[in-house]
Write a structure and sequence with these properties.
Blueprint lengths: L1 E5 L3 H12 L3 E5 L2 H10 L1 E5 L2 E5 L2 E3 L6 E6 L6 H5 L6 E6 L6 H8 L4 E2 L2 E4 L3 E5 L2 E4 L5 E4 L5 H8 L4 E4 L3 H22 L3 H6 L1 H20 L6 H10 L7 H8 L5 H15 L4 H18 L1
Parallel strand pairs: 1-2, 1-6, 2-5, 3-11, 6-7, 7-8, 12-13
Antiparallel strand pairs: 3-4, 9-12, 10-11
Helix pairs in contact: 6-8, 6-10, 6-11, 6-12, 8-11, 11-12
């Protein structure tokens, strides 16, 4: 089987290296300069003191049918990236943050079966094109129950723990309910999760926002409790931050709107006010604008 990785950045790169290690054929689809670099130098993953380099195929456009396509670009690059998929993929697994990307991908790849998924327990960053640094030990992928067993088995060869559990809405909201507040708070403050949850004022604000997101999820048919979400937040490594915060600090386009903005829009859609999360979003957006000037 062949796995194509659309956007071999942090998450996509970690999975590509793991699949190559298991002798799965991997084709990386990237911007022309990045594709040339990966083709000539390979894809490197640094994890602790070890660095592993593999040499997947790399191309600016997918021009051959594949069994599985992993979409691992950032939300801001999604539409441009989908334009580089010129051949059908039997199954598409998007590993983007938020909830709104599913419709975009289904519209852009109408011939493919798109299965909701989320990625957790990973902190990885793209040090430079072709070089990924992973600072957490595990990768956990959760797929919606419509995923075929062979898809889960194939992804498991990457070394990730793969869980098949829940409807599309459940898979996406289970992560978004805590990620929307945490992404905004870390982007705004540039402080790690451990500091925020130890700060009484920030803990209160985050808790209020999680209560709001869980209420919206319930209107979407997904039963979540703030207590369960806080168990996960409290278990996060204290120095953990978010990709949103790192992008904001570096002046790159962030996923703040795709994550926190999507949760706020969902609240408006179902008629539930989200005053704490809306304020966090507004403050984080102001901080982004200040950094860009």
């Amino acid at each position: 089987m062949t796995v194509a990785v659309l956007g071999p950045g942090a998450v996509g790169g970690v999975l590509a290296v793991g699949l190559m290690r298991a002798e799965v054929r991997v084709v990386c689809i990237a911007r022309p300069d990045t594709a040339r670099l990966i083709a000539s130098r390979g894809l490197s993953l640094r994890h602790g003191q070890a660095t592993e380099t593999v040499r997947p195929e790399a191309t600016p456009e997918l021009r051959e049918p594949v069994e599985l396509l992993l979409v691992t670009v950032k939300a801001s690059a999604l539409e441009d990236a989908l334009g580089r998929v010129q051949a059908p993929a039997e199954t598409v697994i998007p590993l983007l943050n938020g909830i709104e990307h599913m419709d975009t991908i289904r519209s852009g790849l109408p011939e493919s079966r798109v299965v909701a998924a989320s990625v957790g327990l990973i902190e990885a960053c793209l040090e430079r094109p072709g070089t990924i640094v992973q600072t957490t030990p595990a990768v956990v992928l959760t797929l919606a129950t419509e995923a075929e067993a062979r898809t889960a088995e194939l992804l498991g060869r990457s070394g990730a723990e793969v869980r098949v559990n829940g409807s599309e809405a459940q898979v996406l909201w289970e992560k978004l309910a805590r990620q929307a507040p945490v992404a905004a708070a870390t982007a705004l403050t540039q402080r790690p999760v451990g500091e925020l949850r130890s700060d009484p004022d920030w803990r209160r604000r985050l808790h209020e926002a999680v209560v709001e997101t869980c209420a919206v999820a319930a209107r979407e048919g997904v039963s979540l409790t703030p207590e369960a979400q806080w168990e996960i937040i409290d278990a996060m490594p204290p120095r953990l931050t978010s990709s949103t915060a790192r992008d904001v600090a570096a002046g790159r386009p962030s996923e703040l709107d795709a994550i926190t903005g999507a949760a706020v829009r969902a609240g408006r859609r179902v008629g539930l006010p989200m005053p704490t999360l809306e304020r966090l979003l507004a403050e984080a957006e102001d901080a982004c604008r200040a950094l860009s000037h």
